[in-house]
Amino acid sequence: MNLLRKLIFSAAVISSATASAQVDYGRIRFHSPSDTIKINEILIEAQKIKSPQKRVEMLARKFLGTPYVASTLENPDGEERLVVNLDELDCTTLIDNVAALAYTAGEGRTSWRDFIFNLERLRYRGGQMNGYCSRLHYISDWIVDNTHRGNLREFTDRMPSTTEITKTIDFMSANASRYPTLSDPEVLECIKNFEGGYRNHRYSIVKWPQLNNRPTRDALLDGDIVALTTNTPGLDVAHMGIIVKDEKGIPYLLHASSKEGKVIIDSRPLVEYLRRNKLTGFRVIRLLE
């Protein structure tokens, strides 16, 4: 154990009595006993970066090569817990872990406890975990809820050329058999109630051909969170990632790839990724501090 790890571990031990009063460990499921040390180390490094955009990009790059694993937020017993897993990621857990780390470091905080607070604040409706239904399953819901609470800002409508979409978002209830937790009639009814707020939901997207135009490419920044939109009935967003640009200013997608089985920077420019995967376009989200 190097000196930094020793200092972090010692601090964690010293403050454990206080932490037990502040953190309800029964509500949290850690993937690894060393998660807290890993989080502290990342936060110490990230809090030195003052630009929110550069901080998001730096944190995202730290997860390159991390294995892609789906459904890590689901618990076998059906009880909702705050899952802390930086070792296995899918496209959405990559985003919420990076966002929570970036937010915590931006506050000048370097404790895993503060990260857990922000992870719950971003992942759940109103910032509080209260069962499966309180999780922000749809990206439109995630954007609306976190924007309302001042955590995020959607920049899509500030892009040079956008298209307005109106869509009813109800994919989960329409495909309930894909979600084991929805076998509980009460949970299914709860999900339907929240979906009711997204009937004829209106939002803006940037259609993928616009990336062939320099103004659109230039308006994207390294570290932007992008939600990739789809024509799939009932679904608003099919995938997520983070923008990284090459030396010519061409945007690429840093994302958790199910095809590659890990977090990668895609070898194809974003415009080509969207075209080949038959995605309609994207939305742009940035963190607030």
Concise account of the structure shown:
The protein is 37% helix and 20% strand.
Strand content: 15-25%
Global geometry: globular
Number of domains: 2
- Percentage of residues assigned to helices: 25-40%
Radius of gyration: 19 Å
Number of helices: 11
- The second-level CATH architecture of the largest domain is Orthogonal Bundle
Low-confidence stretches: 1-21
Secondary-structure content class: alpha+beta
The third-level CATH topology of the largest domain is Putative xylanase fold
CATH class of the largest domain: Mainly Alpha
Query: How far apart are the termini?
Result: 34 Å
Largest sheet entry:
8 strands, antiparallel
Number of strands: 10
Structural features, described:
This protein has helices at residues 3-14, 16-22, 35-46, 52-62, 91-106, 112-123, 139-148, 171-174, 185-195, 214-219, 270-276, and strands spanning 28-30, 82-84, 152-154, 163-167, 201-207, 225-229, 237-245, 251-257, 262-269, 281-287. It is of the alpha+beta class and 289 residues long. The protein folds into 2 domains: 3-148, Putative xylanase fold (Orthogonal Bundle); 152-287, putative xylanase like fold (Roll), CATH 2.30.260.10. The strands form 2 sheets. Strands 3, 4, 5, 6, 7, 8, 9 and 10 form an 8-stranded antiparallel beta sheet that branches. Strands 1-2 form a two-stranded parallel ribbon. It is globular.
